[in-house]
Amino acid sequence: MGINFIKVKSFIMNSLLSTSKIIQKTIKVTSKIESRYPELYKFLDETPLLVSSINNTQIDRVDFTKYLETLKVQIKYQDETHLK
Fold first, then answer.
1. Could you say which of 30, 36, 57, 70 has the lowest number of CB atoms within 10 Å?
2. CA-to-CA distance for 67 and 29, rounded, in angstroms?
3. 61 Cβ neighbours under 8 A, 6+ residues apart
4. Helices (H) then strands (E): counts for the chain
5. Distances in Å between the alpha carbon of 1 and those of 4, 9, 12?
6. How large is the greatest C-alpha to C-alpha distance in the chain, in angstroms?
7. pLDDT (tens digit per residue) in 47-71
8. Which residues 6+ apart lie within 8 Å of 57 measured at CB?
């Protein structure tokens, strides 16, 4: 049994594409915060982007996904607690 390099390459490309899409969504949400929620935008520097593994110092797809979800929760909370 040999390694199916086509499947490995496909898996790697999908992972990279997924990370790229998550980063694009994060940029979109951040831009939305900047334009529609200036009161939140000034706190983005305080919104942590935590690395999920102590042994790994690189940011991965999981970390970006968690950060994106944090931004979405902040928007939702802002909408629920403040009048527009």
1. 57
2. 11
3. 15, 18, 19, 22
4. 3, 0
5. 9, 17, 20
6. 62
7. 666 555 555 666 777 778 888 888 8
8. 51
Q: What is the pLDDT of residue 1?
A: 46
Query: Token pair of 5, please?
Result: 């390099």
Which value, in Å, is the radius of gyration of the alpha carbons in the chain? 17
- Separation CA 28–CA 1 (nearest Å): 44
| Distance of alpha carbon 54 from alpha carbon 43, whole angstroms | 25
**Which one, of 54, 53, 49, 56, lies nearest residue 23 by Cα?**
49
Residues sharing a CB contact under 8 Å with residue 50, sequence separation 6 or more, in sequence order:
63, 66, 67
Enclosing domain of residue 38: 5-81
Q: What is the pTM of this model?
A: 0.67
